[in-house]
Amino acid sequence: MEKLPKIAVPVIFAAIVLIILLAKSAVTIGSGEAGVLYKTFGGGVVTDEPPLGEGFHIIAPWNKVYVYEVRRQEIFEKMKVLSSNGLDIQLDASAWYKPDEKNLGKLHQEIGENYLQRIILPTIRSAARSVVGRYTPEQLYSSKRDAIQKEIFEETKKIVDDQFIVLDEILVRDVTLPPTIKEAIERKLKQEQESLEYEFRLVTAQKEAERQRIEAQGKADANKILSASLTDKILQDKGIEATNKLAESPNSKVVIIGSGDSGMPIILGNQ
After folding, report:
1. DSSP state of 162
2. How confident is the model over 83-106, as a mean pLDDT?
3. What integer pLDDT is reported at residue 137 of this predicted model?
4. How far is CA 116 from the centre of its chain?
5. pLDDT, tens digit, for every residue of 206-233?
6. What are the DSSP calls for 127-143, one per residue?
7. Which of 54-68, 195-209, 236-250 shows the highest mean pLDDT?
8. Residue 42: its pLDDT value, please?
């Protein structure tokens, strides 16, 4: 094998060094990610420029890039908290969050990559203890779940908004009470429901009785007025009118005038 020219050795060595430098200098940011640039000889974390976006980047080999996921993420948390009367309540919740991409450099500089454990989770736990402590187990079980969800979210958001974190939502997925307390609440709710049903039936019966009383009173008043207005003269006129109508009927054959009580006619048919 022929010896390489003297000039080829330095060229090969330089090429190898260049390849190594390029390998250390090349950074690829994936989908849904952003990079924070750290300049070893240039002031540390870059906070006055936008973070590195998706794609391929070349940086100085002595610098570093810290990659963050900037898509919305979800964390699940189970917490033991106390109600207003000191009973243990288990709260299952989840949070939707992401880093503030515009301030990613400040987040990295002031808090770091483990901002979830340092900021988000402790804040959610503190807010949950504070909020749940305002309610009784019965309120938590029946009607206040939406309220505590909203209050935990609002109290947590007040803190994380100043920590370069975006909190989209906190969801209370389940509230677990001690079994004895849960059974007592269910019995009470059942009794209240039965009481409401009884009251409804009672009110319905009272309304129906009142309707019938009013209807009967109306009929009685009408009969009283009618009786007071029926004089002998009116009765005779009505009798004559009825006689005329019956006389015109094809079934009427014999009409005897003046043979009934008070001179009222008697109508005899063909039967």
Report:
1. G
2. 92
3. 82
4. 26
5. 887 787 878 878 777 776 776 666 566 6
6. HHHHHHTTS-HHHHHHT
7. 54-68
8. 83
Q: Is 12 left (phi over 0), alpha (psi -120 to 50) or beta?
A: alpha
Structural element, H or E, at residue 104: helix 104-110
Strand ranges inside the chain, DSSP E: 26-29, 33-39, 44-45, 55-58, 64-69, 73-82, 88-99, 165-176, 252-256, 266-269
- For residue 196 the two structure tokens come to 């409401």
pTM: 0.62
Token digits of residue 143: 């009607």
pLDDT at 155: 94
On average, the pLDDT of the chain sits at 79
In the three-class reduction of DSSP (H, G, I as helix; E, B as strand; rest coil), residue 223 is classed as helix
Q: What is the DSSP letter of 83?
A: -
**Does CATH place domain 73-177 in 3.30.479.30?**
yes
pLDDT higher than 50, residue 1: no
Closest CA to 51 of 145, 127, 164: 164
Burial of 164 (0-12, 13-18, 19+ CB in 10 A): buried
Token pair for 158: 């007040």
Whether 94 contacts 116, CB under 8 Å: no
- Residues across the chain: 271
Q: Is 43 helix (H, G, I), strand (E, B) or coil?
A: coil
Q: Is 132 exposed, middle or buried (0-12, 13-18, 19+ CB in 10 A)?
A: buried
For the chain, which residues make up each domain, given as ranges?
A: 8-69, 73-177, 187-229, 233-269
Q: Which amino acid is at 164?
A: F
